[in-house]
Write a structure and sequence with these properties.
- It is a single chain.
- Helices cover about 50% and strands about 20% of the residues.
- Helix 6 runs antiparallel to helix 13 (about 345-355).
- The mean pLDDT is about 95.
- Strand 6 and strand 7 form a beta hairpin.
- It is an alpha+beta fold.
- It folds into two domains: about 1-200, Hypothetical Protein Pfu-838710-001 (Beta Barrel), CATH 2.40.320.10; about 225-365 and about 390-495, Alpha solenoid (CHAD domain).
- The chain contains 18 helices and nine strands.
- An eight-stranded antiparallel beta barrel has the order 1-5-4-3-2-6-7-8, surrounded by four helices.
- It has helices at about 15-20, 20-25, 45-50, 95-100, 105-110, 170-180, 195-200, 225-240, 245, 250-270, 280-305, 315-340, 345-355, 375-395, 405-425, 430-465, 470-490, 495, and strands at about 1-10, 30-40, 50-60, 60-75, 75-85, 120-135, 140-150, 155-170, 190.
- It comes from Pseudoduganella ginsengisoli.
């Protein structure tokens, strides 16, 4: 099993990284030129099952490696790995199969007959600089700086990557070390392996579509402590899986990244009587939420809300508002881009990953003692779920259906209640749960539309302050949305009464 933390950096920052005191104290590094050739069958059977076969030539010696399985979150990659020396550059699956004996998937992929089908898919040429570090007693880490070029036919892509591979000790030490490096050099979390990049370049692996929340797997005997860790890991995975799409400026990836962050905040709120996120991490979570929320608000306004204003005769005015709003949306997205490339964001993800993987909520945070989380999930979840339901019912009882702020508070409570139920879904009766989730989704949609209208009014007022703004179109849109919202408020009673 291989455990490593992957980060990337800009080529211009290589000298600063090499000069970092942590690396300088390790003595002169080793530098190696290496060539990797990745093999697969014509049908790409290895990659289809999540595995990669690599033959590496370095200093005249050949080594084959078979990797796969596992997962990555917050840049931490944990995968199965087998390797063996070769006499030449020709892969020998049988030798790897002997090592992987007992591992069902690997043994099947390396079965007799595979060798004759293997073909090169892509190559990776790398200049590797290597330091052996001992960041803490009993801990050994191999720090690798790779300046690499992946090639497939005439296509190629360059990358600069730092890998921190755990040789001995606790995985949390990798995060501590990465944070120390990130404090001096702008690093970025990397959840994609070189194999993933190569298969994308080869056209075998398409860039993933926006990633939605995945079901949370919990063992029957899991404790609340286990559940909290798995829930938070799931939310962090959801966020990080969409970062590449956000950096490519696709608004649907941004939406899903924001949903992942919202789920994480809802999970922390659900456990707030027992767990408190350290104040510095909480501040950074709120900072990121504000940036993503601002960009998302403009996206919804441009792509959805404006379509609901007026009819076909209003197309010219609608287009004028879209043009005006696009400038604000571009600025909001640029702010998100800067944030995702910043040391602050990398520090946030590393901090969350370390806090979650090390279950650091067991320690006092900012003077607050942790609550007990040692009860089994099926018992401990009930008071948590009941509390979210009581909060929702209380807000429904007190709601003023003519007040957007009052309805928004109900919407937030409904969302928290739905997320809480989804977190513990494996332990709940499925038929009544499905009915309740459907009711909550219906309510959320109606309240979401009202909230979009309220946000649109704020954004339209902001557009009105711009030089040369289409004042008449802004006034019409604000009046139209206000009248529509008033009408929808009158029909909100039934979905509110259906929540049990």
């Amino acid at each position: 099993m291989e455990t490593e933390l992957k980060l990337t950096l800009a080529a211009k920052d290589i000298p600063a990284l090499k000069a970092h005191p942590v690396l300088a104290a390790a003595g002169d590094p080793h530098e190696i030129e290496q060539l990797d050739v990745y093999y697969d069958t014509p049908e790409h059977e290895l990659w289809q099952r999540g595995y990669a076969l690599r033959v590496r030539c370095a200093r005249g010696k050949y080594v084959q490696t078979f990797k796969g399985g596992g997962a990555s979150v917050g840049g931490m990659h944990v995968r199965d790995e087998w390797e063996s020396a070769l006499a030449d550059g020709k892969p020998d699956p049988a030798a790897l199969a002997r090592q992987a004996e007992g591992h069902q998937t690997a043994s099947a992929l390396l079965a007799p007959g595979v060798a004759g089908k293997l073909l090169p898919v892509f190559t990776n040429t790398t200049t590797r600089t290597l330091w052996n570090l001992q960041p803490a007693p009993g801990c050994e880490v191999e720090c690798v700086l790779d300046v690499a070029t992946i090639r497939c036919g005439k296509r190629h892509t360059a990358m600069v990557e730092v890998e921190l591979e755990l040789k001995r000790g606790e995985p949390g030490q990798l995060i501590v070390l990465a944070q120390e490096l990130n404090n001096a050099v702008a690093l970025r979390i990397e959840n994609a392996s070189k194999a993933e990049r190569g298969y994308v370049l080869a056209g075998v692996r398409q860039p993933p579509a926006p990633v939605k929340a995945r079901p949370i797997a919990l063992r029957a005997k899991a404790t609340l402590d286990d559940a909290l860790q798995r829930i938070l890991q799931n939310c962090l995975e959801h966020m990080e899986a969409n970062v590449a799409g956000v950096l490519a400026q696709d608004i649907e990836y941004l939406h899903q990244m924001r949903v992942g962050l919202r789920r994480l905040r809802a999970a922390l709120h659900l456990f707030k009587s027992k767990v408190q996120l350290p104040a510095d991490l909480q501040q950074d979570v709120d900072w990121l939420a504000a940036l993503l929320g601002k960009a998302r608000n403009w996206d919804v306004f441009i792509t959805d809300t404006l379509d609901k204003v007026g009819g076909a005769s209003w197309n010219a005015s609608r287009s004028a508002l879209r043009v005006a709003a696009a400038q604000h949306a571009a600025a909001a997205h640029k702010a998100v881009q800067r944030a995702l490339h910043s040391r602050r964001y990398t520090g946030l993800i590393l901090g969350l990953a370390g806090w979650i993987s090390g279950r650091q909520w067991r320690q006092p945070a900012d003077g607050v003692l942790p609550g007990k989380l040692d009860s089994r999930v099926h018992k401990g979840m009930r008071p948590l779920l009941a509390k979210t339901q009581r909060r929702l019912h209380k807000r429904i009882r007190r709601v003023d259906s003519t007040d957007a702020a009052s309805l928004h508070r109900v919407r937030i409570a409904a969302k928290q209640s739905r997320y809480a139920a989804e977190f513990f879904q494996p332990f709940l009766k499925q038929r009544p749960l499905k009915k309740q989730l459907n009711r909550l989704a219906t309510l959320q949609e109606m309240l979401g539309n009202l909230n979009d209208a309220a946000i649109a009014d704020t954004l339209l007022a902001q557009l009105g302050r711009d030089h040369g703004a289409p004042a008449e179109a802004i006034a019409f849109a604000r009046g139209y949305l206000a009248a529509t919202a008033e009408q929808k408020m009158r029909s909100i009673g039934k979905p509110l009464r259906q929540i049990k």
